[in-house]
Amino acid sequence: MKKYFPSSELIINEDGSVFHLHVKPEWLADKVILVGDPGRVALVASHFENKECEVESREFKTITGTYKGKRITVVSTGIGCDNIDIVMNELDALANIDFVTREEKDQFRQLELVRIGTCGGLQPNTPVGTFVCSQKSIGFDGLLNFYAGRNAVCDLPFERAFLNHMGWSGNMCAPAPYVIDANEELIDRIAKDDMVRGVTIAAGGFFGPQGRELRIPLADPKQNDKIEAFEYKGYKITNFEMESSALAGLSRLMGHKAMTVCMVIANRLIKEANTGYKNTIDTLIKTVLDRI
Ligand code: R1P
Ligand code: URA
């Protein structure tokens, strides 16, 4: 029996597009670039030779076009893993559910997803301007814990080592952080030898969860010192951003290939930031477009 998805579970708009993204199934390419900022979608698409569709709803802006003969869809996710839950489920539905019969398709269609983002660097080898590719992501967001199969795809010994190191219990780690690998083949192809490979914390916020203290004190004032000092089997935590864990986790559960690469715009260790990064991220965009 094929799985059937009623309209309450998979919401399809009157024009046949998926609920939040407003994208129709025929508009989705196999290669997908995800960015946080809707303004970055036009920057990616400015390299396309042609555009076949452009649609926008809330923070989700989508353009499909061609780059050097490759059909690519670029989508903005806005900020946070909660949005990645929406984007990944709707992209997977567009690829693998028949929008007429509302049944799962017979043939699985695998997507290749690369997130191009910005991040905060945490180590001496991640100064402003570095491209960091997330080999592993530590999800502070808890999203993956709501899906069956989470333990089968996560690095459980790494999770235990990290929690022990932080000394967190109770509310600080509920639901507990999850540790998830990006797709290795994609990392080798996109990061090659010129990007830093690291472990990324996908935080559930920009301030407190990343150890930024403005007027309200932090629950654990030593959080970032401990994160920077953490080491497990040669891995050190390199950077903070806010989406890579849910992207890597949901892609693994769904059978897609995914990875995240971010440009460092703030180094937390030496307390420097660059707000004029919008032009330099174009170098990263072009590199990913060439390698995807
Ligand atoms: C925070 O400023 C945002 O920037 C980073 C974080 O993950 C978060 O989304 O990525 P983007 O530049 O892709 O949005
Ligand atoms: N994005 C983040 O999530 N954190 C930073 O420090 C910079 C960009």
TrEMBL record:
Occurrences of domain Nucleoside phosphorylase (ranges): 32-269
GO CC annotations on file: cytosol
Its EC number(s): 2.4.2.3
Pfam family, one: PNP_UDP_1
MF terms in GO: purine-nucleoside phosphorylase activity; uridine phosphorylase activity
EC class (word): transferase
Catalyses which reaction(s): uridine + phosphate = alpha-D-ribose 1-phosphate + uracil
Gene Ontology biological process terms, A to Z: purine nucleoside catabolic process
Domain of life the protein comes from: Bacteria
PANTHER family for this protein: FI09636P-RELATED, URIDINE PHOSPHORYLASE
Protein name, UniProt field: Uridine phosphorylase
Species this chain originates from: Bacteroides xylanisolvens
